[in-house]
Design brief:
The longest helix is centred in the middle third of the chain and has 7 residues. By secondary structure, the protein is mostly beta strands. It contains 1 helix and 9 strands. The radius of gyration is 20 Å and the shape is globular. Strands 1-2-3-4-5-6-7-8-9 form a 9-stranded antiparallel beta sheet. Strand 7 and strand 8 form a beta hairpin.
Length: about 190
């Protein structure tokens, strides 16, 4: 376990890259790098990471994420009545250096997205009586399903993770067309076990 509510389990993680580290300044330049597992894959060229005063990122990161496996890391969708997610996301984040914020331009393409009510947690004992007709056994309700969902926006969060803002938000799918700009202040979140 990483922290309360966050647990990462990966049978195999592969990383490689061409990386320069400047010990005096704390800057890391990933000239070429990749990280892959069964849950996600990340690749970058010329990503600059600086953590001397505050975490700063500048450069592109391409990603591919299995939403269900990654949601499992966060404990999302693992209890009856919560929302479970499945699908694949891929896209790119172009990090930009801002003095008081961390973020950049985001593009995402999510395929086979399904949000459903999570069923009862798995147990060693079968919960269904074999004499119960199949038609009367309840399947978790599908709340939202999309073949493809496209998202793009400028997203930033302040360095204290208290405010979040986005601009030029575009969300497109068969069911949703959304455009917007916004800001959320005084963010408070807690991981629940």
């Amino acid at each position: 376990p990483i922290s309360k509510g966050l647990q990462i389990q990966e049978p195999r993680v592969i990383a490689n890259g061409d990386i320069d580290v400047e010990l005096a300044t704390g800057q890391i330049l990933i000239r070429r790098g990749s990280l892959s597992s069964s849950s996600l894959a990340l690749t970058t060229n010329n990503l600059l990471i600086s953590s001397a005063d505050n975490l700063r990122l500048q450069g592109p990161v391409a990603y591919q994420v299995d939403l269900q496996r990654t949601a499992n890391w966060l404990g999302i969708g693992q209890t009856a009545g919560s929302i479970a997610v499945t699908g694949m996301a891929n896209g790119q984040i172009d990090f930009q250096d801002k003095n008081k914020a961390l973020g950049g331009n985001l593009s995402a393409r999510i395929t086979q997205l399904v949000l459903r009510e999570a069923g009862p947690a798995a147990s060693p004992e079968p919960q269904n009586n074999l004499l119960t007709p199949i038609s009367s056994r309840e399947e978790p309700a599908i709340l939202w399903e999309e073949k493809e969902l496209l998202i793009s926006s400028n997203l930033f969060v302040d360095r204290q993770f208290q405010s979040f803002w986005f601009g030029g938000l575009k969300v497109d799918s068969e069911l949703v067309v959304l455009r917007g700009n916004g800001r959320i202040d005084e963010i408070q979140a807690e991981m629940v076990a």
